[in-house]
Specification:
The protein is of the alpha/beta class. It is built from 15 helices and 17 strands. It folds into 2 domains: about 100 residues, Urease, subunit C, domain 1 (Roll); about 290 residues, TIM Barrel (Alpha-Beta Barrel). About 40% of the residues lie in helices and about 20% in strands. The chain has an 8-stranded parallel beta sheet, with helices on both faces. The protein is globular. Bound molecules: N-(iminomethyl)-L-glutamic acid and fe (iii) ion.
Length: about 400
């Protein structure tokens, strides 16, 4: 007896490419995909007719900073008048303005506004959402952010993957070295022991941390069996991408200034390249990530929203994917794999979600569209007819 069978569907597993399955039905039991091509006689608790709609895996937004308070509208407007992002951060605004607002917010205020930030993502079929800390930068506030992130999972019926990003920037009152020591010696063990996160991220940039800091943090994080992620080569080339690859990071994110040597290192380590086209579009910078080199080297590419108040205030993974095609030259197949299979791999090589394959988590959405590429052609306001997380309708 199956829990659920969906009939008359056009099923796109997104395991390798955009090919469609020949079977037109899919069965779910215990939250997992159990069978395809189900005979009408097979017993099931619930049977749904998809009326020839498209079924895609639930989307995976593998890079967000969605738990924050306040906004950065004034800084955005100032940039339109010629101010620059790095200068704003050096002057104590930028990331640190959001840190002040997030520290001031109570747990319930932060939960409320964070739920609002991500509601459009969930509505467009995101069933897995990575959320980084990093707007707290003190013990109480980093824990508050990670606890808010965990509290969102049952409310949204969406898998939340929390990432500890204490190494986002250096807060006022610390040297870089003293702050990094606190992050890796005090906070990291605490976060891991309390089960608040099993993934770690660091912003390597002249505004934040160095490649040597990445080595130091990743050595500790690897000893705690954490999954490793890094913001690398976003605003200039630092060499951090190849360092992160050396540590077999799950993902390197941004990569605008990564060079051929970095790409080769990513290919050897199996690290996923996470591209964040909305951040580039909203910063208005010209440098583009080395997409052709990544493609030639066979590096898996994921696309994420980077949802944050400073550089990417746009809660739409479909806009991110559509933009990746026009701005970075991705193909529709690369963009759709980048929202699903490869985004799941960026979070965890053994994710168990992100494709429609036997044994995978039954996270999927039903779309009334002519074919999957339609979502990239007309991304605005697209909503699935239904979406399912672990086999349950949301
Ligand atoms: O991914 N690059 C660093 N972190 C964020 C931006 C954070 C902010 O400006 O608040 C990013 O773009
Ligand atoms: Fe980011």
């Amino acid at each position: 007896m199956f829990d659920l069978v969906i009939d008359n569907a056009r099923i796109y597993p997104l395991e390798r490419d955009l090919s469609i399955r020949s079977d037109r039905s899919m069965a779910v039991t215990g939250g997992r995909i159990r069978a395809f091509g189900i005979p009408q006689s097979a017993p099931s608790r619930l049977r749904l007719d998809a009326h020839d709609a498209v079924i895609l895996p639930g989307f995976v937004d593998c890079h967000t900073h969605a738990v924050f308070a306040g906004d950065r509208l004034d800084e955005y407007l100032a940039r339109l008048e010629g101010a620059d992002y790095a200068g704003q951060n050096r002057a104590g605004f930028g990331i640190l303005s959001t840190v002040s607002a997030t520290r001031r917010a109570s747990f319930s205020e932060l939960l409320d506004c964070s739920l609002k930030h991500v509601a459009p993502l969930v509505a467009e079929g995101v069933t897995t959402l990575e959320i980084k800390s990093g707007y707290g930068l003190d013990r109480e506030s980093e824990i508050k952010i990670l606890t808010v992130a965990a509290a969102m999972e049952p409310i949204l019926k969406t898998r939340i993957v929390p990432t500890f990003m204490g190494a986002h920037t250096v807060p006022t009152g610390f040297t870089r070295a003293s702050y990094l020591a606190w992050v890796q010696d005090e906070m990291l063990p605490l976060v891991v022991a309390s089960g608040l996160a099993r993934s770690v991220d660091i912003f390597v940039d002249p505004l934040a941390f160095t490649p040597e800091d990445l080595d130091s943090l990743f050595e500790r994080a690897a000893a705690h069996s954490c999954r490793l992620h890094a913001h690398t080569d976003q605003l200039g080339h630092t060499g951090a991408t190849r360092r992160a690859a050396h540590w077999r990071a799950c993902s390197c994110d941004h990569l605008e200034y990564a060079d051929q040597e970095d790409v080769t290192a990513l290919a050897h380590s199996g690290t996923v390249a996470v591209l964040l086209p909305l951040a580039q579009a909203f910063l208005g910078t010209a440098q583009k990530p080395p997409v052709e080199a990544l493609r030639q080297a066979g590096v898996p590419i994921a696309i994420a929203s980077d949802l944050n108040p400073g550089t990417a205030p746009v809660a739409s993974l479909l806009w991110a994917a559509a933009t990746s095609i026009r701005l970075f030259g991705l193909t529709p197949t690369e963009a759709l794999l980048g929202l699903t299979h490869h985004a799941a791999r960026a979070l965890d090589p053994d994710a168990g979600f992100g494709t429609l394959a036997l044994g995978q988590s039954a996270d999927f959405a039903i779309w009334d569209i002519p074919r999957p590429e339609f979502l990239l052609y007309a991304p605005a306001g697209q909503r699935p007819v239904m979406s399912f997380f672990q086999g349950e309708r949301r």
